[in-house]
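Hello,

Our lab assistant flagged a job as stuck in the queue for most of the afternoon. It eventually completed. Since we weren't sure the result was trustworthy after the delay, we are filing this so someone can double-check. Below is the sequence as submitted and the structure that was eventually returned. Let us know if re-running is recommended.
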Amino acid sequence: METLTAARVEPADRAELRGTARGGLVNLVGAVVAGGGGLTVTWLVAVALSPADAGAFFAVTSVFLVVGALARLGTPTGLVYWVARLRQVGREAAIGSVLRISLWPACLASAAAALALFASAPMFERPDLVRLVAVFLPASVALEALLAATRGYRLMGPTVLIDKLGRTLAQLAALAAIALTGAASALTVTAAWALPYLPAALAAGWYLWRRHRGGGDAGFPDRVEARAFWGFTAPRAVAGVAQIGLQRLDIILVAALAGLGPAAVYTVATRFVIVGQLASGAVGQAVQPRAAAAMAAGEALSAKRLYQASTAWIVALTWPVYLAVGIGADWYLRLFGGEYATGTARAVVWILVPAMMASAACGVVDSMLSMAGKTAWQLIDVSISLAVNVGLNLLLIPSLGVVGAAIAWSAAVVVNNLIPLAQLWRTFGLHPFGALTRRALAATGLVFGVLPLSLSPLGGPWTLAALAAAGLAWAVTLLRYRRRI
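-- returned structure --
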C-alpha cells in the first residue's frame, strides 16, 4: 500500500496537493460559516416557531431542495468535469459550447419544475409555503450550475464568497431580524430563507460571464457535442436527485407519516450532520477538477494521492464533530430548547453518528467515481441506497417514528459509501486508506472518543472538559503540521 509522505510524492503531485489544499482551505472557511449558519438557522427556527410550524418549514425546504436537484439535470457535475478536462487538454475554446448545451436546458427545466411545484401546492399541508419557495427555484438551480462552471476553472472563491458566505449570511441576517422584531411565522421565516437565492444567482452569473468572455470560441471550430456532454451528465442528473433524496427525503416522510412536530424533532436531532457534509463537500469541490484532470491524463497514482490526502483532511475535520455530538448529545439537543431534548432525539443522534463517521472515512468516494467517468455506476449505486432508505422509512417510521427514520438513513449512508468504494478499489486501485488517513482515524478516535468516554463515570462536566481540551489540542496539532498535511 502506498504511504503518503512528503518524501514519496513527486513534485508535480506535490503541486497538485498544494493546489487542492489551497482550494480546500478556501472552501473550508466557507464550510465553517455555512455549517454554523445551517445550525443557527435550525436554532432560530426552533426557538422562534412552534414545533408544528418549524416542522412545516423543514419539510417545505426539503421539498425545495429535492425538486431543485431534479431540475438541475446533473449540470453541476457535468460542468466541473467538462470544463476541467477541456482546460487540461488545451481546448478552452470549446468551453463555450459546454456552457450553452448545459445552462439553457437547466434554465428551462427549473422554470418547468417551478410551475409544477406551484400548481401542486394544494397537495401539501402548507400550500402557501410551497408556492413561495417555487418562485425562487430557478434562482437556486442557476446558482448551483453557474458556480459549478467556475469550479471547473479551479476557482473556489466564487462558490465560497457568493454561496457559502453571501447567501448564508444574508439568510441569517433576515431570520435574525424577523426573530428580533417578533414577526416570526412560518411564512416570513420561509421567505427570509429563500429570498437570498436570487441575488446570489445574479452574482454567480456576472462572475462567470467575466471569467469566460476572454476565452470564447468565436471563430474557432471546436465544440463539445451535446451527445457527449449529456451522455456523461444524464446519469448524474438522476443520481443527483437520489443523493439529495438520501439527505432530505426522510424529513418529508417523517412529516407525512408521523406529523410536523416529529419532523421538527428529527430535523433538529440530525442537523449536526450538516457540518460534516459541508466539510466533505468543501474538500470534494477542490478535489473534483484536479481528479478529473488526473484521470483524463491517465495519472491514476496522482488521483490516488489526492483521494487519500483529502480523506485524511475530512476525517480530521469531521470525526471530532461527530464524536463530540454523540458523547454530548444532551447538551447539543438542549441548545434548541427543552422540548427537543428527548430520549428519542438522543437515540437518533446515537444511531447517526457511527454511520456518518463511516461515511467520512470513505472520503469523497462519490466525487472520485464521477470524475473517473463512471456516472452510470454512480446512478446504480445511489439508486440502491435510495431504495434502502425509502423502503426502511416506510417500514419503520409507522412503528418507531423518528428512530426508524434514523435507522433507515444510517443504513442508506453505509450502502451509498461501501458500494462505490468497492468499485473504485477493484477497478482503478483507488482507496482512501493511506498512512495519513490511518493516523487521522486513530488519533481522532482516541482523543475525541476513548479519552472523554473514560472520564464519563466522573460526571458530565469532566466529559465536557475533556472534549474541550481535545478540541484545543487538535486545533494546535493541525496548525503545527499544516504543511505536511
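-- support follow-up --
The delay was a queue issue, not a problem with the job. The result is valid. Confidence is low (pLDDT under 50) at residues 1-9, 216-220. The chain has 20 helices and no strands.
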